[in-house]
Design brief:
The structure is a single chain. The protein folds into two domains: 144 residues, Rossmann fold (3-Layer(aba) Sandwich); 162 residues, Rossmann fold, CATH 3.40.50.720. It is 44% helix and 16% strand. It contains 15 helices and twelve strands. The strands form two sheets. The chain has a seven-stranded mixed sheet with strand order 9-8-7-6-10-11-12, sandwiched between helices. Strand 3, helix 3 and strand 4 form a beta-alpha-beta unit. Helix 6 crosses helix 7 and helix 13 crosses helix 14. Bound molecules: glutamic acid. The site of glutamic acid has 13 residues, from strand 3 and helix 13.
């Protein structure tokens, strides 16, 4: 009789990824426990008067993981199936991500258990302001700096900053990043995650043999997925042949156009059903594939940019791509990664690949703290420098220890966090 292995939770997956590096570094159990246990878990039940005058309750969290390198930093997500363990895992990832990019921050993450798509604009604004009212004592430019994440955006950050400033009694733009440019935000923050990933991918393609344009499939068409599709579409080295949202994927041999897909999604609410003009495939049904089929496509690069756990032990062995650029936090489970590594696929791990977002958040915070203004070109240049040097280090350590890029990234970050804990900075 075969043994049925229990599926790991998101937290266990993040911990296992870290644990491989911790074992290479011969960390003690106490050190491992310290690095994987959050400093503080805040929770609140936000009460919101809905448009129909009924009051509804929305559970909300902020997890502060580790601040030995600086204030806690990380996004706030609005998601109906949100759980505290998910937020804990994401907060832990943020500590490692900030350390890897040498940002003067620790890690945090927050969220509200809500489907923002069914709220009116007034309800969404009220809920966002309620979040700040609930946690404002633990937030601030030197304490904990929230930012956007899944289903939150610059408008929500503007409301949050405004609420925070009202409570603080003075303008405090550095308390929140990812604000709109008109409201002390920074140019280039909106597509920073995608752009950072693009810089990494552009360099990683030197590792693979290919002739002609590299075929790319992108899973997820939120802010990161859409913007990365646009960046790749404008680069002659790549051709985006497939994209998806939670309901399904579309495929076109001749390449897809991100803006027309976005237009279709805005009108219809989903990607599936999209007819792609100019495709060799004139029959609509040939265009539609499932999310799982997208992962199995014969492409060069797969970019998971949806939710965690999408590449798992059930589908990892079917992947044909040569590179996986993990844009969504935790997209590849621990077990899937072992299968993928054995197949020789290059994996650019989440804490490196999607670090462009928090890196430009750091630039925004720095500007706000020092009353400076940088233009878009300067932001892009500084971001590229940061991403390149993180990748250089990851590649160096990966060779030095003969480990995967993920383990190398964790080794670098772990050393940095431990060093600042030791020095008590
Ligand atoms: N939510 C993004 C992340 O997971 C950005 C966080 C930030 O800008 O603080 O990295």
């Amino acid at each position: 009789m075969g043994v049925i292995m229990k599926k790991r939770t998101f937290y266990e997956n993040v911990y296992e990824h870290f644990n491989v590096a911790a074992n290479v570094l011969k960390l003690s159990d106490t050190e491992k426990e310290i690095l994987s246990t959050p400093d503080k878990i805040l929770s609140a039940n936000l009460k919101l008067k809905m448009d129909d005058n009924l009051i509804r309750i929305f559970p909300a969290y902020r997890v502060q993981h580790n601040n030995s390198r600086g204030p806690y930093k990380g996004g706030i997500r609005y998601y109906p199936e949100l759980s505290l363990t998910e937020i804990k895992s994401l907060a832990m990832l943020m500590s490692f991500k900030c350390a890897l990019l040498e940002l003067p921050f620790g890690g945090g993450k927050g969220g509200i258990e809500v489907n923002p798509k069914v709220l009116s604009r007034r309800e969404l604004e009220e809920l966002s302001r309620a979040y700040i009212r609930a946690f404002h004592c633990d937030i601030g430019p030197d304490r904990d700096i929230p930012a956007p994440d899944v289903y939150t955006n610059e408008t929500i950050m503007d409301w949050m900053e405004n609420e925070y400033s009202k409570i603080a009694g003075r303008e405090t733009p550095a308390a929140i990043t990812g604000k709109s440019v008109q409201n002390n935000g920074i140019p280039g923050r909106v597509d920073a995650t995608a752009r950072g990933a693009y810089y990494i991918i552009r360099r990683l393609i030197n590792h693979i043999d290919s002739d002609g344009r590299l075929r790319v499939a992108i899973q997820g068409f939120g802010n990161a997925g859409y913007n990365i599709a646009k960046l790749l579409e404008n680069d002659k080295k790549f051709i985006v042949v497939s994209v998806s949202d939670s309901k399904g994927a579309i495929y076109s041999e001749n390449g897809l156009n991100a803006d027309s897909i976005m237009q279709h999604k805005k009108v219809e609410g989903l990607i599936a059903g999209m007819y792609c003009p100019g495709s060799v495939c004139q029959r609509e049904e040939h265009m539609h594939i499932t999310n799982d089929e997208l992962l199995r496509l014969d492409v060069d690069i797969i970019i998971p940019a949806a939710m965690e756990g999408q590449i798992n032990r059930d589908n990892a062995s079917k992947i044909k791509a040569k590179i996986i650029a993990e844009v969504a936090n935790g997209a590849i489970t621990y077990e899937a990664e072992k299968i993928i590594n054995n197949k020789g696929i290059v994996v650019a791990p989440d804490i490196l690949t999607n670090a462009g977002g928090v890196t430009v958040s750091y630039f925004e915070w720095y500007q706000n703290m020092n009353d400076e203004r940088w233009n878009r070109e300067e932001v892009y240049r500084k971001l590229e420098e940061k991403m390149n040097s993180a990748l250089d280090e990851v590649e160096y350590v990966s060779e030095e220890y003969n480990v995967s890029m993920r383990t190398a990234a964790y080794i670098i970050a772990t050393r940095r966090i431990l060093a600042s804990m030791d020095s008590g900075d």
